[in-house]
TrEMBL record:
Keywords: Disulfide bond, EGF-like domain, Glycoprotein, Repeat, Signal. This is Multiple epidermal growth factor-like domains protein 6-like 3. SUPFAM superfamilies: Growth factor receptor domain (SSF57184). The keyword ATP-binding does not apply. It comes from Homarus americanus. Disulfide bonds join C255-C264. It holds the Pfam family cEGF.
Length: 413
């Protein structure tokens, strides 16, 4: 008697795998799927909902499996299950203008004495009031302060002769006199702490600062326009469609695979792909956007994965993280996953972060001047002077005299 393999016709009615048995077709499912009561069809097993996953923080169900993800402030470790806290302070000081303190899953910015914290990470100088007991005799007018003290009744450390402080006498009751400081840059200086001049600009400048070429921005024109903007002053809005990206200088569009047109306008409607846009994108794609040719999800810049839920690995960027950052890894704080722009570590500049600060300058973007005595240079990353002060003196510029556990301020009026 001839034995007919029941799996030969229509796979035995099985959705996945079929095995011929004594009673006919026996259906089984691929790993990650469960056989349904009809003994024919297979349904994805949601390991996240069933809590059979190994993820430490977040679980994302996928077809036939799952993927682990981390909440903001953490990154997935090499075991792909556990999450490790990101020390945001190690990269560009966390964006903090002064001090940065790492916390679990986040970080906190703070300011040095004499400044107030505004907008989470910026520090703004405060108007100080000083009594005659600390400043001696003075009158209405301008003083040029070349000395800074680490003391409760002194001007902030960053104050130098480039900053003109207006002293205003205000007499209160009981014959108490105070002086209020109003700080502004003297002509010819601009930028953070009035530390920049036209000599710091790559091209032309005016009284307000450097005049950047199209596509560039920042105090010294060292930054590229943020994503979505281009032109002079980065004031023009990009018009690229279908996830096209625009050149920061000209605004010309670069289209993703399967899309064409000057503005990347020749693409399938959302939710469809194929040569005639006749096929539907996978349901998991965000906003139903998928590659017009192959149908895989087209993720937003900086994201990748079957559901576009994973951040780009280090030194990759763009839609689906398909581009490699052109940054020097050793001197780069991070590569922006959306734009590919290199964010340099303190002490380095350049489009690929390969140039060290010029002598006499330090910090993020090399925006700060060394405050060292006798023209000594400082560390390009920290600003610490390479030369000790003479005996009996202290301070960043060696102008503070030590007197029996107290500080003496020399003010020339």
């Amino acid at each position: 008697m001839e034995v007919i393999n029941s799996c030969l016709e229509n796979n035995g009615g099985c959705q996945h795998m079929c095995r011929h048995g004594p009673g006919g077709a026996v259906c089984t499912c691929h790993p990650g799927y469960l056989l349904q009561p009809d003994r024919r069809t297979c349904q994805d097993e949601d390991e996240c909902e069933a809590r059979t996953h190994r993820c430490q923080q977040e679980c994302v169900n996928t077809a036939g499996g799952y993927a682990c993800a981390c909440t903001q402030g953490y990154i997935l470790s090499s075991d792909t299950f556990t999450c490790v806290d990101v020390d945001e302070c190690e990269r560009e000081n966390g964006g903090c203008e002064h001090e940065c303190r790492n916390t679990q899953g986040s970080f906190v910015c703070s300011c040095r004495s004499g400044y107030n914290l505004i907008d989470f990470n910026h520090c703004e100088i405060v108007d100080y009031q000083y009594t005659d007991d600390y400043l001696g005799q003075s009158s209405r007018g301008d003083l040029d302060l070349g000395t800074a003290l680490e003391d409760d009744f002194t001007v902030p450390e960053d104050t130098s002769a480039k900053t003109r402080d207006t002293w205003e006498d205000i007499t209160y009751a009981e014959y108490s006199k105070f002086h209020t400081v109003h700080t502004r840059c003297v002509p010819g200086h601009f930028g953070p702490n009035c530390s920049l001049t036209c000599a710091d600009c790559p091209g032309q400048c005016d009284t307000s600062g450097c005049l950047c070429t199209p596509g560039r921005t920042g105090p010294t024109c060292s930054l590229t326009c943020p994503p979505g903007f281009y032109g002079t002053g980065c004031n023009e809005v990009c018009r690229c469609e279908n996830d096209g990206t625009c050149d920061p200088m000209t605004g010309n569009c670069t289209c993703p695979p399967g899309v064409s047109g000057d503005l990347c306008e020749d693409g399938c409607p959302a939710g469809y792909y194929g040569s005639k846009c006749e096929r539907r994108c996978p349901m998991m794609c965000p906003n139903m956007r998928c590659n017009r040719v192959f149908g895989f999800c087209e993720c937003d810049p900086g994201r990748f994965g079957p559901k576009c839920n994973m951040p780009c690995p280090a030194l990759t960027w763009g839609p689906n993280c398909r581009h490699q950052c052109q940054c020097q890894a050793r001197t780069t704080a991070r590569c922006h996953a959306e734009s590919g722009v290199c964010e340099c570590s303190p002490g380095y500049v350049g489009s690929d972060c390969s140039q060290e600060c010029l002598p006499g300058r330090w910090g993020a973007g090399c925006l700060h001047e060394c405050q060292c005595a006798s023209g000594a240079t400082c560390h390009p990353a920290t600003g610490v002077c390479f030369q000790d002060c003479p005996p009996g003196f202290t301070g960043s510029d060696c102008t503070i005299r030590k007197l029996a556990n107290s500080l003496y301020l020399i003010v020339t009026i």
